[in-house]
Amino acid sequence: MNNKEMVSILFIVVGFIGFFVWYTDGEYTYRGQSSQWAGAYMASEEHGVKTQQITLTYEGDKGAEDMPVSYEVSAKGLNFSGTRRLQNHKILFEFECSHCRVALIAKEIVIDLEWDNKKDTLVLEP
């Protein structure tokens, strides 16, 4: 193998490693708004720990506190559902993960919400 071939291979390998590091690190944010809700998704890495966070803010009746809200979160690589109570007009999901790549593979995050006999769909986009 001559020097020219070696430099070419080295350039390709370094480029691939650089792209992979850029593609997996950093911070990714999605945001969205519906008639009653605002939402934000953030995936980040700090000190080697990857986290995902979804914050849903209820913008409806200001007197609604401690209200149960059913939710279904759907995106490529991220799916969960359940019921949580509204606290300070917010619902917060936060968890550590080993592969926070949702922002890299999902075009949108869809959140279906149901509360107080009402329904809404919130779409978060990059």
Helical/strand content category:
alpha+beta
| H and E order | HEEEEEEHEE
Low-confidence stretches: 14-24
Shape: elongated
SS field, number of helical segments: 2
Mean pLDDT: 81
Q: Work out the number of β strands.
A: 8
In the sheet with the most strands, the strands line up as 1-2-3-6
CATH architecture: Sandwich
Model description:
This protein is an alpha+beta fold. The protein has a single domain (26-124), classed as Sandwich (Immunoglobulin-like). 21% of the residues lie in helices and 51% in strands. The chain is built from two helices and eight strands; from the N terminus they run αββββββαββ. The strands form two sheets. A four-stranded antiparallel beta sheet has the order 1-2-3-6. Strands 5-4-7-8 form a four-stranded antiparallel beta sheet, with no helix packed on it. A hairpin with a 2-residue loop joins β4 and β5. It is elongated, with a radius of gyration of 20 Å.
Can I get a quick summary?
The chain has helices at residues 3-24, 102-105, and strands at residues 27-33, 37-46, 49-58, 68-75, 78-85, 90-96, 109-115, 118-124.
